[in-house]
UniProtKB/TrEMBL annotation, chains A, B:
Name of the top EC class for this enzyme: ligase
Enzyme Commission numbers on file: 6.3.4.21
Homology family: Belongs to the NAPRTase family.
InterPro entries xref list: Aldolase_TIM (IPR013785), N/Namide_PRibTrfase (IPR041525), NAPRTase_C (IPR041619), NAPRTase_N (IPR040727), Nic_PRibTrfase-Fam (IPR007229), Nic_PRibTrfase_pncB (IPR006405), Nicotinate_pribotase-like_C (IPR036068)
Keywords recorded for this protein, A-Z: Ligase, Magnesium, Manganese, Metal-binding, Phosphoprotein, Pyridine nucleotide biosynthesis, Transferase
Keyword Magnesium on entry: yes
Catalytic reaction annotation: 5-phospho-alpha-D-ribose 1-diphosphate + nicotinate + ATP + H2O = nicotinate beta-D-ribonucleotide + ADP + phosphate + diphosphate
A single GO BP: NAD+ biosynthetic process via the salvage pathway
Domain Nicotinate/nicotinamide phosphoribosyltransferase, first and last residues per copy: 151-389
SUPFAM superfamilies per record: Nicotinate/Quinolinate PRTase C-terminal domain-like, Nicotinate/Quinolinate PRTase N-terminal domain-like
GO CC field: cytosol
Organism whose genome encodes this protein: Triparma laevis f. longispina
Protein name per the record: Nicotinate phosphoribosyltransferase
C-alpha cells in the first residue's frame, strides 16, 4: 500500500484488458550520480528483499482500494488478494557495489500487473538508501581512513523512519557509529551506539555544592581530587556549574568520560575543567575518553586543545593525555571536511548530523523504473531530452578491469549477446554519440547483476548484512582509480554499450520517432 | 527509543546525582525561517501528542539499554520502567499557525530526567513536519489559489515513513491531494488520493488489435467511435500503441479519463489520440477529465493543448473541452511555479514530487531544544555566535495586531510580566541590538501558546485534525501582510522582547560571560 495511486489504476486497466499476465521486464536505474561526483553506492537491497517476501494486500487494504476504484468488479479484488511476488525473478547488483548511470540496479521480470504495482515501493526503498550511503561514503573519503565518523542526524531526519534508514545506511557507507538508539536496538552488533551529554546537562548545574557524594565512593574521590588539582593549578576561575556537571558525569561514566567543553568558554573554562576531572579519574585508575567541540573555529580550538593536552602530559607525566579523542560536531559537511584537511587541526572524530542524513547537497537521487520489454518486444521511450531516452530491451551488464585490477568501464550488452572475454578486444560505444568508441582488452570481466529473488525459492543468496555491505563499499572504493573519486571535477567513468546494442537502440529510435512535416 | 544515546547517558547521570526530579523548563524553537523566506508553519503537533500519550520503555527496550549502560544499577531501570509523561505540562502554538524565530513552538515543564529524554524525539517529530508544511504552503502561494496541487513525492522521499509524513503535511500546507495510497488509507477522508497512468502503460501497447471488446460493451463503443473520429479527422498517423492504451484506459475508467500524452510526441500523437477517445467517451455520455504533461516546455505545450481544445469545442460544439484539466508534472519546484506565472500557460493542476517532499531548497529546519530554567533559576547559553545566545528563563509569547487586523510583531515577555494590552503603548525591543526599539499600540493581542498536555488529563483540547490545521494555514496566510510573503527579499517580520526581558537577558549575559585578560 506504500505506493502511488496510479500503480493501482494501471493495474486495474491491465487486468480489465486481460493484459496483467503479459510477461514483462522493468529496469530500475538512475541517470546522474549525486553530489556532482562520479560514484554512487548500490544500497537498500536488504529492505527490497524483505518487502518482496512480505508483499500481500490485507483485507483492510482491499476494502480501501474498493473505495478508490468503486467500479471494479469483485473478481479484480480476488486477483489482488491472490497477488504475491512468487511469479517474479529479480536480478540485482550486490549491495555496497559502486554503480553508474543507466546500468540497471534491479531488473524485475514477471507478469505486467504485479511488476507495475511494485514501481513506487521499489523506488522508495532504493532511492534514499543509495543516496545516503553514497553521501556517507563521500564523507568517509573526505575525512580519511583514520578518523572516527559518528552519525548524529536523527533530530533532523525527514520523519522517524528516515532517521532509522539514515543511521543504518551511513554505517554501510563507512561510518563507525550512530547516536540513534533504536538503530542500535534493531540492527544489533553491527551498529555502535554513541553519545555523551548536551549543553543542557552542563547548564543544569550552578554550584559545586550541588554535587555531593558519600565518603568512600568513586564520586567522592573524583570531587576531592579534582578540587585538589584545581588549587594546585590555580584554576579557580573556571565555571563552577560546568565543573560540577563534569564531576557528576564522570561519576556516572568513569570509564567513558567524554565532555562537551564549549558551553561557556571553550579554552578558558571547559578545557580546564575537563583536565581537572581527567587527572582525578586517572588517579583512581580510570582513563578519560576525550572532549567534544560543538561551536567556534574547530581547527583552531582542536589544535589549542591538543597543545594543552601535550603540555599536561609532560607536566604530570601522564600518557593518557596523548590518547584523548577530540570530537567535533558543529554543522559539518563534506566541504568542511575537505577544508579541514588543508588546515592544521587535531580532531580525531567527527559527529555529523543534518548535512549527512538530509543529503543537503542533493536531497534526492532520481532513480527511475522503466518498462524495457514486454512479451519479447523491446520497448523504447522517446524524449525531446536525449538523456531521458531509454535503452530498450533486456540487457546484461559487465564491469571490465584493466591490468592494474581497477575498473576501466561498465558495459551493457543485449541479452543474447556473448559477453566480452578476458584478453580479447571488445568494441565499446557511447550509447548516444556515434563517434565515441573505444576498444577494451579486459584483464578481468565481472558480471554485475545476479538473481537475488526467484519465484520458487524467494530470496536467493541470503539478505545482505550491514557488515558485509560495509566491507564491500570499502573494497570497491579502494579498487577504483582515485581520479574518479576526486572532490572537484572527477574524471568521468564510462558506461558503454556494445556495438550490437548501439545499432539496435538507434534503429528502434529512428523507427519510433516521428519525422516532422514542416510547411 | 527513537532518541539519541546521549539522552540516555545524561538521564543516567542526572539520576545517579539525584537530580532527575529537579523541576525544569525546556523550549523548542528555531533560529531562522527556511527557504530564504520569512514564514514558517507550526506543524507536527498531532504526532507529538500521540508520542507523549504512548511514551513508555518496553522490557525489551530496557534490556537493550542495559547493554549500552552496563554499570547502571537495577534501580535505574526500575526508574526508567516507571517513566511516563504524566509529570509533564506542555504548551504549544496551534498547528497551522505562522511562527517566527526564537518564539517557543513547544514549552516542556517537568522533572529534568524525562524532559531531557524527550529532546531528540520531539525535534524529529517537529522539524520535518514544520519544514515540509512550510514548503507546501510556499508552493501554494506560488501557484495561486485557483490551481489544483497534487503531491507525487513518495518515490523520492527519505524513507517510507518520510513519504507518509510528507503526504500528510503537504495537505496541511495547502495541497489538494496525493498519489500516496497508504496516506489515504490511514488518514481517511481528509486526504484525496489521485493518480492515472505512467509512460510504461502506454509503452506496453503496440497495435490496435491488442484491444478487443465484446459487442454491446462500453469498450466496444469507445473503440468503434474512436476509430470513426480518427478517420473523420484524418489522424491516422498517430502512434497506434498509444491510441490502444488510451482506449483501454478509458474502458477501465470511463468517468475519470486523464491521459498522459507525452510518451511519443505530445502534440503530434498524444494530444490527438486523447481527443479521439474523448469524443468517443462524450458520445456515450462520459465526460473525460483531462491530460497530463510530464516533459518538455510546459508553458508552450499547455497553451497549444488549450488552443486545440478550444478549436475542437467549436468544431464539434462540445462544451466539455473547455473544462478539461491540464496537469503538469515534470520536476516542478517553487521557482518554476513563480516563473510559469509570468509566462502564458494553461496548466490547471500541478503534480509535484521530489522538490516538494525533500525540501530541495533547504532540507532541514534546524529546530533546537534548550533548557531555559531549572528550579526557578533561569539558564543561559553563551556563544561566540550572537545568533546562538539563548534567551533565558520561562517566557510568554504574544502576537500584536494592527488596526487592519494584520500582525505587527511577535513579543516575548518574562513569565510574571503583565502582557501588552489593547490600545496601550508597549515598548518592544530587539533582543540583541539595543538601539532597535519600537512602541506598539496593538488593536488586538493574541497569546500564542496554550497548554496542550498536562499530567492529569493527557491531551488537552483534542488532537489537531488535518482539515482544521489546513484551514488555519490558509487563514493565517490571508491575515499576514503580503510583503512578508514575497518570494524575493520579503520584509523581515519582527520578533521582539519586552524591556524587562531585554534588561534581564543582558544582565545575565554580562554576569556569565568571562572578561578576557590579554597581556
Amino acid at each position: 500500500m506504500l505506493t502511488d495511486m496510479y500503480q493501482l489504476t494501471m493495474c486495474y486497466a491491465y487486468w480489465k484488458a486481460g493484459r496483467h499476465e503479459l510477461d514483462s521486464s522493468f529496469e530500475l536505474f538512475f541517470r546522474k550520480p549525486p553530489f556532482g561526483g562520479e560514484i554512487t553506492v548500490m544500497s537498500g537491497l536488504d529492505q527490497v528483499l524483505s518487502f518482496l517476501h512480505n508483499f500481500k494486500f490485507t483485507s483492510s487494504d482491499l476494502s480501501y482500494i474498493k473505495q478508490l476504484i468503486p467500479d471494479a468488479p469483485p473478481s479484480f479484488f480476488t486477483y489482488l488478494s491472490s497477488l504475491t511476488c512468487s511469479s517474479l525473478t529479480v536480478e540485482s547488483i550486490p549491495q555496497g557495489t559502486l554503480v553508474f548511470p543507466r546500468i540497471p540496479l534491479l531488473t524485475i521480470k514477471g507478469p505486467l500487473g504485479i511488476c507495475q504495482l511494485l514501481e513506487t515501493t521499489l523506488l522508495t526503498l532504493i532511492n534514499y538508501p543509495c543516496l545516503v550511503t553514497t553521501n556517507a561514503a563521500r564523507f568517509r573519503i573526505a575525512a580519511g581512513e583514520d578518523k572516527v565518523l559518528l552519525e548524529f542526524g536523527l533530530r533532523r531526519a525527514q520523519g522517524p523512519d528516515g532517521g532509522f534508514s539514515a543511521s543504518k545506511y551511513c554505517i554501510v557507507g563507512g561510518f563507525d557509529g550512530t547516536s540513534n538508539v533504536i538503530a542500535g536496538k534493531i540492527l544489533g552488533d553491527d551498529v555502535q551506539v554513541k553519545g555523551t551529554h548536551a549543553h543542557a546537562f552542563v547548564q543544569s548545574y550552578k554550584e559545586l555544592k550541588e554535587v555531593t557524594f558519600e565518603e568512600g565512593t568513586i564520586g567522592h574521590s573524583i570531587k576531592e581530587k579534582t578540587l585538589k588539582y584545581r588549587e594546585e593549578l590555580n584554576w579557580g576561575d573556571t565555571h563552577e556549574g560546568e565543573l560540577s556537571a563534569f564531576i557528576s558525569y564522570a561519576d556516572a561514566f568513569p570509564s567513558n568520560f567524554l565532555a562537551l567543553i564549549d558551553t561557556y568558554d571553550t579554552l578558558g573554562s571547559g578545557l580546564k575543567n575537563f583536565i581537572l576531572v581527567s587527572l582525578a579519574l586517572d588517579d583512581i585508575n580510570y582513563k578519560p575518553t576525550g572532549i567534544r567541540l560543538d561551536s567556534g573555529d574547530l581547527a583552531y580550538f582542536s589544535s589549542e586543545v591538543r597543545k594543552m593536552f601535550t603540555k599536561m602530559a609532560a607536566q604530570y607525566s601522564r600518557d593518557f593525555f596523548h590518547k584523548l579523542m577530540i570530537v567535533a560536531s558543529n554543522d559539518i559537511n563534506e566541504n568542511v571536511l575537505q577544508e579541514l584537511k588543508k588546515q592544521e587541526h587535531a580532531i580525531t572524530a567527527f559527529g555529523i548530523g543534518t548535512n549527512l542524513v538530509t543529503c543537503q547537497k542533493q536531497p534526492a537521487l532520481g532513480c527511475v523504473y522503466k518498462l524495457v520489454e514486454i512479451e519479447d518486444q523491446p520497448k523504447i521511450k522517446i524524449s525531446q531530452d536525449i538523456a531521458k531516452v531509454l535503452i530498450p530491451g533486456r540487457k546484461k551488464s559487465y564491469r571490465l578491469f584493466g591490468a592494474d585490477n581497477s575498473p576501466i568501464l561498465d558495459l551493457l550488452i543485449r541479452e543474447n549477446e556473448s559477453p566480452p572475454e578476458v584478453g580479447q578486444r571488445f568494441l565499446c560505444r557511447h550509447p548516444f554519440e556515434e563517434q565515441k568508441r573505444v576498444f577494451v582488452t579486459p584483464s578481468r570481466v565481472e558480471k554485475l547483476s545476479s538473481i537475488v529473488w526467484d519465484g520458487k525459492n524467494g530470496v536467493v543468496g541470503g539478505l545482505p548484512t550491514i557488515s558485509g555491505s560495509k566491507e564491500r563499499v570499502k573494497s570497491q572504493i579502494k579498487m577504483i582509480r582515485g581520479d574518479h573519486l576526486r572532490y572537484h571535477n572527477p574524471t568521468p567513468y564510462k558506461v558503454s554499450v556494445s556495438d550490437a546494442l548501439f545499432k539496435f537502440l538507434h534503429q528502434l529510435w529512428l523507427d519510433s520517432a516521428p519525422v516532422l512535416e514542416l510547411s
